[in-house]
Amino acid sequence: MLGKFTWRMLATVLAGEGICVLLGATLARSVAAANDSSTTGLQLTGGIVLGLLCFVAAGGMRRGWGLPLGWVVQVLVLLSALVVPMMLGVALIFGAMWIVCLRKGRQIDVEQARRASLG
Fold first, then answer.
1. Residue-number span of the structural domain to which 64 is assigned
2. What is the DSSP string of the chain?
């Protein structure tokens, strides 16, 4: 189970990532429409589903299923770079923030627990 600071930090990362993914979905749709592609609806729908999945994972961080779903989201955002290459930057930035928040959040939770036991 995640500590309070860890899940809050991870949920914040996922919420920000969700916004970027939704913006990336509109970009993918616009690029596909400009290229007269027939997959505009599919790209927009896929991006919206992935963006909403980010928010669902953020909401599930308090519970046990949020962390595994968050990892799935990180992988899916990385794979979305195959459709929209600029999503690689989003995946790398938010993936790095995800890992840092996971590590530092746990350190903060341990320190908070230590301080609570002292006082």
1. 4-118
2. ---HHHHHHHHHHHHHHHHHHHHHHHHHHHHHHHTT-TTHHHHHHHHHHHHHHHHHHHHGGGSTTHHHHHHHHHHHHHHGGGTSTTHHHHHHHHHHHHHHHHHHHHHHHHHHHHHHHH-
pLDDT digits (tens, 9 = 90+) for 39-93: 888 889 999 999 999 999 999 999 989 999 999 999 999 999 998 899 999 999 9
**Can you give the pTM of this predicted structure?**
0.91
Number of domains in the chain: 1
And the tokens for 35?
């290229």
Q: Structure tokens of 118?
A: 């002292």
